[in-house]
Amino acid sequence: MVVDFVGAVALLQKMKRQVETKLGFELKFAASSYPPGVPQAEVRATANVLFSAGLECTGLIDEPSAANNVLQIQDGAIVDVGGGTTGIAVFEKGNVVYTADEPTGGTHFSLVIAGAKNISLEEAEELKKDPKQQRSLLPVVRPVMEKVGSIINRHVAGRKVKKLYLVGGACMFPGMEQVVQEFTGIETVVPGSPLFVTPLGIAMHN
């Protein structure tokens, strides 16, 4: 979801320049994604960020469906834990039968770390990503992981979901898979490189 349109455009323009410098040619096209179930106005805002950054939008897809372009699951649920929200898509025979999205994501990990350690959000972000610190931080962020589990339970209730696939940067935090499985009682896996699953799926769209 686009909260700060001007800031999003500026950030994307900066990233575009950095990538173009490394590749040695201009980027002209891009695809994007959005949390499932958001209003069409939010979907259009995502495309408008691309346009304003000088890119032609070639496709838009909801995040869990993008992830399934890579994972190709037939039955189960993909849970995309992003920076600010947790998106869920339930699949039956390869088709999306239900989607939902709720606040709670990687930013909430940083917020609880910042509060517990009495440090800035920026410092907490760096601490969160430090492999040497993650084991000791697990008790601090565990309630956020359990909140993700409660979101999952609420949205898969009454559905025959036997396996969860966790993707998104927050799922790289050690212990996430085990905590969610314990909380939901559903077999839970984290694919390799979960941070890149959804972006790769976006690139594969169209």
Please describe the topology of this protein:
Layout: H1 5-23, E1 29-34, H2 40-52, E2 56-62, H3 63-71, E3 76-81, E4 85-92, E5 95-103, H4 106-117, H5 121-129, H6 131-156, E6 163-167, H7 176-184, E7 187-189, H8 194-204
Parallel strand pairs: 1-2, 3-6, 6-7
Antiparallel strand pairs: 3-4, 4-5
Helix pairs in contact: 1-2, 3-8, 4-5, 4-6, 6-7
Structure description:
This protein has about 210 residues and is of the alpha/beta class. The protein has a single domain (about 5-205), classed as ATPase, nucleotide binding domain (Nucleotidyltransferase, domain 5, 2-Layer Sandwich), CATH 3.30.420.40. It is built from eight helices and seven strands, in the order H-E-H-E-H-E-E-E-H-H-H-E-H-E-H. It has helices at about 5-25, 40-50, 65-70, 105-115, 120-130, 130-155, 175-185, 195-205; strands at about 30-35, 55-60, 75-80, 85-90, 95-105, 165, 185-190. A five-stranded mixed beta sheet has the order 5-4-3-6-7, sandwiched between helices. It has a two-stranded parallel sheet with strand order 1-2. Helix 1 (about 5-25) packs across helix 2 and helix 4 (about 105-115) packs across helix 5. The two termini are about 20 Å apart.
Shape: globular
- Which CATH C-level class is it? Alpha Beta
Judged by helices, strands and strand pairing, the structural class is alpha/beta
Mean pLDDT, as a whole number? 92
Question: How would you characterize the largest beta sheet?
Answer: 5 strands, mixed
Number of strands: 7
Q: How far from one another are the termini?
A: 21 Å
Query: CATH topology, what is it called?
Result: Nucleotidyltransferase, domain 5
Instruction: Please give the radius of gyration in angstroms.
Output: 17 Å
Order of helix and strand elements from N to C terminus:
HEHEHEEEHHHEHEH
Task: Give the uncertain stretches in residue-range form.
Answer: none
Strand line-up across the major sheet: 5-4-3-6-7
The CATH architecture is: 2-Layer Sandwich
Number of continuous helical runs: 8
- Helicity level, as a percent range? 40-55%
Query: What fraction of the residues are assigned to beta strands by DSSP?
Result: 15-25%
The CATH superfamily is known as ATPase, nucleotide binding domain
Number of domains: 1
